[in-house]
Amino acid sequence: VNMQNLIKKFVGVLSLVSCTPLFVSCGTIGPTKNSLKPVSQGETEYTFELKPAMEQKVVANYKSHSHVEIFEDQQILRERDEIVEFSAQEEVVALGMDGRSFTQRVKILKKDGAVELHTLGFPEEGEELETTLTTKAEVIKAGEYPKTSLFFVPPISLPAESVKVGETWTLDKEWVSMNNGIPLKLELVSVLKEVYQCGSDPIGCADIEISGSVKMMGVDDSKVNFNSEIRGRLFFALGRGILVWSSIKSQEKLVTEKQLLTVRGCMGSRLQSPEILSGLPLECEPVYDIPQVPGV
Fold it and tell me: Three-state SS string across 218-248, please?
């Protein structure tokens, strides 16, 4: 097993949890602090669903940054930063007859950086990828990729039932790394922190905090020890059914008989079009802390 490629893959997997290719992108300017006002009242329940429209086109920008360090005998051997920024266009090309699914076509418009976009769950430049999802963000089909691949990890965790502020929901998903065939399992917990006024959205934006881990399955723990942690914040427009902003941080440690590999990673995103709430910044610094929604 190539452990460096494995760690790189994990960073891509964790960043994928923060974004859905159809609905998010990245920006740079933040609003005035505490400019967003809470709107939730008592026992109000909120329903979370993606709400695609036929021929809807979205241009989205992304940034991913991971800092990798490799140690041997308590001495650092190598360290590197892996940074990529890219722009994608997504178009809804079909709506399911049941009203609960849709198909989108994703293509990359530009890319700056050497990171393979497949490790982030996106097509590469020059490719087009058609994916079919439910309105609860479950992936039904992803091009010709097998259902055991990273492309079938849900791009965002949405609750199956309506939830109130303070309530939680979970996501458990297994897949097999395309690089090395190692099975992995994502365990994620989300909590609805609050609902805020959110630009043009008629209901408001849900402030969601996520935490969890990725586990390596079927590996001899006496030879390889892997630890992974995830923290993040999402801002989801309830009326429009679109993820407006996200910031995800991850921290991984992989210990073998001879080496220690550590990775601190992040992925930030912000909706560019359609515009719902302007001014939210792109946040992607590979420092492991709990992201905060600007203006909240």
Answer: CCCCCCCEEEEEEEEEEEEECCCCEEEEEEE
